[in-house]
Amino acid sequence: xxxxxxxxxxxxxxxxxxxxxxxxxxxxxxxxxxxxxxxxxxxxxxxxxxxxxxxxxxxxxxxxxxxxxxxxxxxxxxxxxxxxxxxxxxxxxxxxxxxxxxxxxxxxxxxxxxxxxxxxxxxxxxxxxxxxxxxxxxxxxxxxxxxxxxxxxxxxxxxxxxxxxxxxxxxxxxxxxxxxxxxxxxxxxxxxxxxxxxxxxxxxxxxxxxxxxxxxxxxxxxxxxxxxxxxxxxxxxxxxxxxxxxxxxxxxxxxxxxxxxxxxxxxxxxxxxxxxxxxxxxxxxxxxxxxxxxxxxxxxxxxxxxxxxxxxxxxxxxxxxxxxxxxxxxxxxxxxxxxxxxxxxxxxxxxxxxxxxxxxxxxxxxxxxxxxxxxxxxxxxxxxxxxxxxxxxxxxxxxxxxxxxxxxxxxxxxxxxxxxxxxxxxxxxxxxxxxxxxxxxxxxxxxxxxxxxxxxxxxxxxxxxxxxxxxxxxxxxxxxxxxxxxxxxxxxxxxxxxxxxxxxxxxxxxxxxxxxxxxxxxxxxxxxxxxxxxxxxxxxxxxxxxxxxxxxxxxxxxxxxxxxxxxxxxxxxxxxxxxxxxxxxxxxxxxxxxxxxxxxxxxxxxxxxxxxxxxxxxxxxxxxx
Length: 625
Ligand code: ADP
What we know:
Number of strands: 22
Structural class: alpha+beta
Bound molecules: adenosine-5'-diphosphate
Number of helices: 21
Distance between the termini: 108 Å
Largest sheet: 8 strands, mixed
Strand order of the largest sheet: 5-4-3-6-2-1-7-8
Helix content: 25-40%
Radius of gyration: 35 Å
Strand content: 15-25%
Shape: elongated
């Protein structure tokens, strides 16, 4: 019999496949099972209109058979089958797969050797060559009398010859490779392993996947002895929970599904189950966990949703389906609009996937808004766990999503315990109040002790407490809310005074110019100015900043490589109403120098900054006492 050659490009791909070092070789089973399922689909649809199909819905099945001794795995279906021509056409070419295009495009790149893409997304049927060195396909097409046998041992080509076969359908025999030092191919001959793979990848195939499984059971005739019992078992559950109608599903069903599928011990905080039709048709089942996964804040954490194409898993964590600010969402998407054999690279550019991702983003936002207005307590608990992500989301990508996310943010404030939204804050604003005030610090308690806070609160203004590093960055991108600008109460130009008060403090500063200049001179480059202030309540001193960079921003930036030069311009503010102001006026030069050092160091400590020389500070303090 003459051997036929694969098309040139197929040969190349096949070669890659056979020599694949890829670790996900196990996906071959998923590929073959989904082909079988497709073939059954075809015959089943035919049966709806064609009486000559003798099978009915419940007759269709996929059968797995393992012959450990001869290293054989058989996958059979009673689907539509293939004619000799179809065997040639379908199994003689691989090139229609997108994976090969990817390979060619990247030939010169550093990833030229990276065949993982092929391994992971499969090129269907051919992925079987990753685990076997010979494949036989016996197929009888619907409406034909004769069957055909297609045989290949890999790159060197294939043969097709006529043969006999009982029913319509396809039977694929895989001759599993011998184990090597690095590869355990024998695992695919282990019925438990195979059953596990079916569960993992093909649980939701709509037809039963059956296999003979042997179990060790107590021998009824001999106490204490065990015998092997062999049963035909259905390995897949067949009905995906997300395909069921919502009214059929109990909350426990969702919770159990979530816990077993996403390895959590705790019920999810929120379940989102949506069925979408229109521009894209897909089912989505998503969960917001109650707790952050242990690796959530590490580089190892991978965001993404499982991606199914018509019930068949094609990707375990598709990152393109979730924006970073929702990286905590777990779940899956099932769409018939996606092709099964799509590579990661192609997927990224897939128009349909983009539409789905957009719809999902919107869905999650809406669900969170609903939770915020319907169940405040639950939302606050959620926000404590994952709110940080949303704040980063406001800030990320130059604020592209800021408007969609701003109403999901919560902050503590001087209003009391608990959280406030920006909307609620603005709703409480006094008529005379023009800006939204905020203060930064490590914790609400620390912020509550800031000198500037007292004066702002005295005016009857509420102050938001920013305790996360990202807060001020997020707000600087937001710029305003409802037309109200954000103002850091530690900025030197904080404008909460009346015109008369402004005039008075301006005069006082002019009168004391000589003194203030001297103090500035003592402090050198440490500060950009020393000023008298009327905004410090009963506190003697405080640090404020001039310009864009605030103290908190400088703290964050100083930790980032490349931003070492970024410094906040500090202003030492002295309370003009405090007795210390008078003392300074009366002090001689030596004394003034010491006072200046003490006041500046105190102000730094209040602002949460280090002081250069703590022992000098202590010595001087003791001296003055
Ligand atoms: P894909 O499934 O993406 O089309 P494959 O290489 O897996 O790529 O299969 C190629 C073609 O071979 C299929 O499109 C189908 O027409 C045919 N085929 C594969 N397996 C079977 C089967 N079990 N029964 C009938 N046809 C099959």
